[in-house]
Amino acid sequence: MLKKLCLLLFWIVVGTIPGKAQFVKEYKVSGNPDLDLVHLHFTTYKSITQLKRVKAQDPIYIHGHLAKSNILPDFKYTVRKNILDASLIHKNVESDNLGKNITSKLFFSETDFEHSWDIGLVSNYLYDLDFNLGMGSADFDLSQVPISKMKVKSASADVVIRYGTEVPNQVTMDTLLVTLNMGKVEVQNANFTNSKKIILEVNYGKIDLNFSSGMPSGCQVIAAVGGGTVNLKLPPDSNPVKLKMKTTPMSRMTLPNYLRAIDKETYVTKGFSSSDPKLLDLIIDVGVGSITVQ
What we know:
Distance between the termini: 63 Å
Structural class: mainly beta
Order of helices and strands: HEEEEEEHEEEEEEEEEEEE
Largest sheet: 18 strands, mixed
Number of helices: 2
């Protein structure tokens, strides 16, 4: 009994318990004031991923807690013509047990995620972000981070894109693209992205898209769900908005009274003008499920 107690105290002192060991990995790229663009390609197979602005001089700082040391990430970067191209790839190189079925991989909680990643970006570089998340969850706080393009792809994940300090993107974002096979994508203060195009596609799951106010410039939006729900909050109806609904007999929709129908599929706000340079042009497509517009 005394031996077991001493062993337990030892693991408490070193800060971990057998079977729950965590391996810390850190990567960063030193600052270079001549950089015109930072392209980050980030791939992980099963993790909790968080991104936010940090107060630093280095354009990229990545901190990871890994559950297994035999599946190590591969990080590399190059600088060419004032463009930093950085890549972190963390894949499961072990073969899956044939006895595991598909459902055991799809139904899990956050406590099942084996790894966590914290990504720090800064305010004085322009970013092009490309994420492939596999399975897991992601929280992207884009406040005070200049982003020209952002792409997120996942097999099964919950993805949140937000602006925690309500500071909008200081540059024009060409495209925000999120594609999920299964899961939920939530975009808060979508107008803060300052994006020309927003494309959200979920095969099975949910889309929450919130515009707290109008766009600073024209924006095309596609939100498509094969099976599930779309919740859309529009800016005040004084803003120019056109909303086209693509539904089937197996989908239903709830619309606010202030929207005016101009044909069987298309609705507009009081402030709508087809020539307005700040027009928010939306297409909502649901195969099986529901659409709720506020």
